[in-house]
Amino acid sequence: MTSGVSTVHHREGAGGTRPDTVLVTGAAGYIGSVLVRQLLESGCRVRGLDALLFGGDSLVGVFAHPRFEFHRGDLRDPAAVAAALEGVDAVVHLAAIVGDPACARQPELAREINWEATRALFDRGHASPRVQRFVFASTCSNYGRMQPGQFVDETSPLNPISLYAELKVRFERHLLEADLRPDFVPTALRFATVYGLSPRPRFDLTVNEFTREVTLGRTLQIHGEQFWRPYCHVEDLARACLLVLQSDPARVRQGVFNVGDTSENYQKKMLAEELLALVPRARIEYVEKADDPRDYRVDFSKIHGQLGFEITRRVPQGIREIHAALVSGILSEPDSPRYRNTP
Predict the structure, then answer these.
(1) Is the pTM here over 0.85, yes or no?
(2) Do both 129 and 221 map to the same domain?
(3) Are residues 183 and 237 in the same domain?
(4) CATH number, position 180
(5) What is the dihedral of CA 44, 133, 245, 139, to 10 degrees?
C-alpha cells in the first residue's frame, strides 16, 4: 500500500459508504476474530494487529485470504502502530487488557495499553489524513450500579468501580472532547456483556462459564442471583462495529452507543432458569451476596433508533450453541487457560 495518500477509498454499503481498508486491533481476540471475518465477507480489506498474547489459532482460517494482512505487534510500539496504520481508512480498536480481573492483576500494563497506547493510536490515526473512522470498544461496566428499578442509557452518569472501567471512561472522554478535523469520525461503543462461540473461545464470561459447568455435570454456584446485567452475542457486537463503519458520519461522529438489546437484560437467576430448561437435572446452588457494585439494566434504544441495529441471537440460543459445542467435543479441554483472559 502506498503511504502518504490523502484520498480515502470507500465503497457503497447498506446505509451508506464503508471503508475500503480497515485496521482491527486485537484481531486474534474473542470479538476481533469474528469481526475480521465479517469485514472480509462485506468486501473490505482487513489488516489485523495483535500481540498474540493468547495465540493466533483464531486467524488460521483467514490468514491466507487475499484481502487479509496480519501484523504481529505490541500496541505500545510506535513503529508497529505506524506500520499498521499505513494505508488504512478506518480503525476498529478492540485491543486491550480486557475485564476487571485481568486489569486488577496487571494494573500498570492495563494503564499502558488501555490508556496510554490507546490514546497514542487515536492521536496518530487523527494525524493521518487517510484515516476517517475510529471505532472504540468500550463497556457498559462504565455505569457501575443503577438505581433500583431503573435503566441506564447513554445520558446516565458513569460510575466506574474497577480499573478496567475507569480506563475505558478516561479514553471515552478523550475521544468525545478532542478537537478534531472535520472528516475524522470517532465513535465509542459500550458493549453489553458478551457470550457465544468465537474462533477464540472464552469460558471466563458469565453465560459461557455457567453453560460449561452445567454441561459438564458440575454443581454451578451462583453468587448473587438477583443482580442484573445486559448480554449480547459476540456476532452481534462485531456486527455493530461494521454498522458504525458504514453509518452516516453525522449520526456517529463523537457519539456513544450502548450495544445490545433492552430485552436482553438478565438476572443471574434468569440465566439459571434458561440452563434448567435445557438441562433439567442441572445442579445449581445459590450463594447469598447482598451487594454487587456492577448491578445494572441498560437501555439500548439509541442504537436501534438511530442506526437500525438489531440483534440476531438471544441468550437462550447462545446457551444452546455453547452446550452443543461442548457435548460434541469440538471444544476440547474446556478448562484450559487458553480459554480465559486470566490464569
Answers:
(1) yes
(2) no
(3) yes
(4) 3.40.50.720
(5) 120
> Are the C-beta atoms of 222 and 284 separated by less than 8 Å?
yes
Q: Are 162 and 101 in contact (CB under 8 A)?
A: no
On the 0-12 / 13-18 / 19+ scale of CB atoms within 10 A, 268 is buried
Question: Are 133 and 218 contained in the same domain?
Answer: no
Going edge to edge, which strands form the sheet with 133-139?
Answer: 68-72, 45-50, 21-25, 90-93, 133-139, 185-191, 255-259
Pick left, alpha or beta for residue 15 (phi over 0 → left; psi -120 to 50 → alpha; otherwise beta): left
Q: Do residues 135 and 275 share a domain?
A: no
Q: What is the number of other CB atoms lying within 10 angstroms of the CB of residue 216?
A: 12
Cell 453465560, residue?
A: 207
The span from the CA of 44 to the CA of 65, in Å, is 11
Cβ-proximal residues to 126 (8 Å cutoff; 6+ apart), any chain: 134, 178, 180, 181, 184, 186
User: Domain check: are 43 and 128 in the same one?
Assistant: yes
What integer pLDDT is reported at residue 343 of this predicted model? 59
> Is residue 12 domain-resident?
no
What range does the domain containing 223 cover? Answer: 206-230+262-294+313-339
pLDDT per position as a tens digit, 112-166 = 999 999 999 999 999 999 999 999 999 999 998 877 778 999 999 999 999 999 9
The one-letter code for the residue type at 208 is N
Is 122 in the same domain as 29?
yes
Which of 52, 137, 146 has the alpha carbon at shortest distance from 98? 137
**For position 330, which CATH number holds?**
3.90.25.10
Confidence label for 289 from pLDDT (cuts 50, 70 and 90): confident
Crossing angle of helices 234-245/32-42, nearest 10°? 50
Per-residue pLDDT of 155-207, as tens digits, reads 999 999 999 999 999 999 999 999 999 999 999 999 999 999 999 999 999 99
Alpha carbons 102 and 109: distance in angstroms, whole number: 10
Residue 5 confidence (pLDDT): 30
